[in-house]
Design brief:
By secondary structure, the chain is an alpha/beta fold. Helix content is 35%, strand content 20%. The protein has 7 helices and 7 strands. α2 packs parallel to α3 and α2 packs parallel to α7.
């Protein structure tokens, strides 16, 4: 019985190569990191985006970029597989995404935010999710030009989630609906 639940070794997982990943079809989702300060969080976002074949990550403002030893500690090489670009200003990244037909949502608690489970997703649509600074969240001017805000329902005493955890939740939800 226990052998049926044997933990698999990395070689047994049959993962694709970086080249195969880069050539593989991605979900139409872009993650925008707005001034994320923790390089460990950035690395975790890369790893999540690799796991669910996110199209690309836009690193903005103070958000560190690869190559970076601290990012690599949590990305474990995903910074080499997932496409990424750097923007000095998050506003510029969002304007470009909107011009290319992406619906842009800030993952933030706002006055009229939509609960994640209630957001309508068109399988033929293209989406971008903006996640912000660990303490200050997404910049207000970025929220203002977004198509809306998505809030992750929470039922405990805290009012926020770590950015890498929040990214995992929203990316998984979008992946399930877009794949």
């Amino acid at each position: 019985m226990a052998s049926q639940r044997k933990k698999l070794k990395v070689e047994e997982l049959n993962r694709i190569s970086i080249e195969e990943f880069q050539a593989a079809k991605k979900i139409p989702l872009v993650i925008v990191l707005d001034n994320v300060r923790s390089q460990n969080n950035i690395g975790s976002v890369f790893r999540t985006c690799d796991a669910f074949r996110v199209e690309e990550i836009l690193l903005c403002g103070i958000t560190a970029t690869p190559p970076n030893a601290e990012i690599h500690k949590t990305a474990l090489g995903a910074e080499d597989s997932v496409k990424w670009r750097y923007y000095h200003e998050t506003l510029q990244a969002v304007h470009e995404l909107k011009a290319r037909g992406y619906a842009v949502f800030s993952v933030e608690q706002t006055k009229n935010s939509l609960s994640l489970e209630k957001i309508q997703i068109d399988k033929n649509g293209k989406y971008a999710l903006v996640l912000g600074h660990e303490l200050h969240g997404v910049q207000q001017e970025v929220i203002d030009i977004s198509d809306g805000s998505i809030e992750i329902p929470q039922y405990g005493t805290k009012h926020s989630l770590n950015i890498s955890v929040a990214t995992g939740i929203v990316v998984w939800d979008f992946f399930k609906r877009l794949k």
